[in-house]
Amino acid sequence: MESEFIIAFKEVLREQFVDKHKVDIEGLGTFEVKHREQHQKKYDDGKIVMLPPADVLEFKSNIRISNEH
Amino acid sequence: MNIDKPKLVELLVEKTGMQPENVESQLDQLIERIISAAKRGKALEIKDFGLFYFNESGELKFDPAEELSTEISFKYAGMKPVELKPKRDSGLPPIDADEEKEPEFSPVIDTPSEELQKVEDTSEDDPFGIDDSEDDDFDFLSDMEEEPQPETEPEVKPIKEIKTKPIKKAPQKRKNNNGLIAILAILLLIVLIGGTIWFMDSFTGSEETEVATSSDLPVLVPEELPVITEEDEENIEQLQEVEEQQTTETEPAQEPEPEIEVQQPVEETPATTPQPAADQPLYGLMGVVMEEANDGYSIVIHSFNTEDTARSTAALLSQDGYRALVNARTVGGSSTWRVSVGQFETLEQARQATEQLPSPYNTQNFIHRIQIN
Question: With A12 labelled, which of B80, B260, B289, B336 sits at a CA distance of 20 to 30 A?
């Protein structure tokens, strides 16, 4: 595998993610950028933190290790 | 917009200029490598992109690298998590109830179930929220420089959300914080005011006496009458006794206050400088100034704007038997001449000696470290 390809692969996907495009790679999974609203998070020590909003990359895959065996 | 595999290949061809077949096989190789590495129990990391691995329940997972997360969430870069409640307040029932309003929040990670729920879990426990915002902004900046983002969504949007939502969700917590801040501010104010008053007090004493001496000296010399000022009232009896005993003398030798001793010409003072007595201790209030004792402390009782006034006052004091010193100091941009008495080895000795001074100097003084100019 050429490193040139890897670099291009990363760049193309990054561009698509930033543009909020859903990327479905057959045989691997689906990348999707979702907006996460700000929300509270409670830690075990009782601390409650308001997390800022963010755009988060989610990855879903149908591939399971049990299916492959 | 949805990018599927053929579209991705197309984009990759555009980017690399390679043959589509080549790109396709490279892509297949990459997918194959990711999966086979993950199957061997190894996570495959694509640098600056992320990590592919199988989790405990055998699902293929992907953790984006910090660089990628930051870039994707560039609009919110620099926004930090805000702590709503300090630790010590934990356990208050209203706040706990407030927290329960969020049903999606589930700290349970180790219950394998349907895929959907898993995904939600990861988004809830998402480390990027914190990691993102804790990322230094330089990463974000450098990313922006490399690839200027065409999107021009106003930056104000996230700020608006922050302003409105916390108030809705946790008004009580905000209140608590405000109260704490108010108390802290009041405490700080009190400390500042106290400090200012103390600072002013330490100077007003010497300033008052300065005014008294400078005004007394020129006025009283021609009259040749010892006018007794307020501050000398306590010494009236002593003064009268001295005058009775030594009617012929112009100088009352035991006169403790320089201000009363107005009859004495200033010019006399250099001539009358006594020689150090052989048995005089190195440190003390009375006696003559010892050069070797100039590493200690002295009690400042006057502060003048001119050196001449300071020197003449010091001369009067030394005639009274005090070790009188003149030091120049710069206070608030202007130089002042401090007249101090005594040489003391320690601060505590100096403080004790202030009690031996006549009024008002026993209270209106301050101690400084001797600095010979």
Answer: B80
**Of the residues B120, B147, B169, the one at which a domain ends:** B169
Tell me the fold of A3-68: HU Protein; Chain A (4.10.520)
Per the prediction, chain B carries an average pLDDT of 68
Inform me whether the C-beta atom of residue B172 falls under 8 Å from chain A C-beta atoms.
no
Question: Is residue B246 included in any domain, yes or no?
Answer: yes
Spatial contact of B355 and B362, defined as CB atoms under 8 Å apart? yes
* Listed residue (B70, B65, B66, B42) closest to B54, CA to CA: B42
What single letter denotes the amino acid at residue B371?
Answer: Q
Token readout for B281 is: 């201790």
Nearest CB to A54 within list B4, B30, B132: B132
* Residue ranges of chain A with per-residue pLDDT less than 50: 67-69
- Answer yes or no: do B140 and B227 share one domain: no
ipTM of the complex: 0.84
Question: Residue B149 sits in which domain range?
Answer: 43-169
Q: What residue of A is the nearest CA neighbor of B38?
A: A65
Q: What is the pLDDT of residue B183?
A: 92
Sign, CA dihedral B132-B137-B138-B140, equals: positive
Q: In terms of CA atoms, which chain B residue is nearest residue A27?
A: B31
Q: Is B34 on the interface with A (CB under 8 A)?
A: yes
Per-residue DSSP letters for B99-134?
Answer: HHT-TT-----S----HHHHHHHHHHT-HHHHHHHH
> Is B9 within the bounds of a domain?
no
Structure tokens at B36: 């086979």
Distance from CA of B131 to the nearest CA of A (A): 11
Are B259 and B212 a contacting pair, CB within 8 Å? yes
B130 touches chain A (CB under 8 A): yes
pLDDT profile of chain B (373 residues), mean per 10: 87 88 89 85 85 86 89 84 66 48 45 42 43 41 42 43 45 65 92 90 58 42 44 48 46 45 41 54 84 85 88 90 86 82 88 85 84 66
The pLDDT tens digits of the residues spanning B33-47 come to 888 888 888 888 888
